Automatic annotation (TrEMBL):
InterPro entries: ClpP/crotonase-like_dom_sf, Enoyl-CoA_hydra/iso. Keywords: Isomerase. One of its GO terms (molecular function) is isomerase activity. The gene is eci1. This is Enoyl-CoA delta isomerase 1, mitochondrial. It comes from Notothenia coriiceps. The keyword Metal-binding does not apply.
């Protein structure tokens, strides 16, 4: 949740997670969830070009910047890890949640067919 919020913002994340939204590629691009879209036959070339841009930056500079940008989120996740795991396990194992997830999975199967 925190990573998505840092990427697309509070409101978009809140709506997406509460409504269980699945984004089509163009919509994911529009909200900033992905950086670019490529035709399937051009994915490798585009990925190679993108990674070349990143690799042109010295490793230490890239790592320091990334760590600084993500420090607050990493610290929060690390300090709350055990309580987050316990909360998730307690939540996900409830009968009502399992039933709801089962219904959601069935809906996704029908949508895919």
């Amino acid at each position: 949740m925190d990573t998505m919020k840092n990427t697309v913002g509070q409101r978009t994340t809140e709506m997406a997670l509460q409504l269980g939204l699945l984004y089509k590629p163009a919509d994911a691009l529009k909200i900033g969830l992905v950086d670019q879209l490529e035709p399937e036959d051009q994915v490798i070339a585009a990925a190679t070009q993108t990674i070349s841009r990143w690799l042109a930056i010295p490793d230490h500079a890239r790592q320091i910047t990334k760590s600084m940008m993500r420090k607050k989120t990493i610290d929060k996740l690390t300090s709350n890890r055990e309580s987050d795991i316990q909360y998730f396990v307690n939540f996900i194992t409830k009968d009502s949640i399992q039933k709801s997830l089962g219904g959601y999975m069935e809906m996704l199967k029908k949508r895919r067919a």
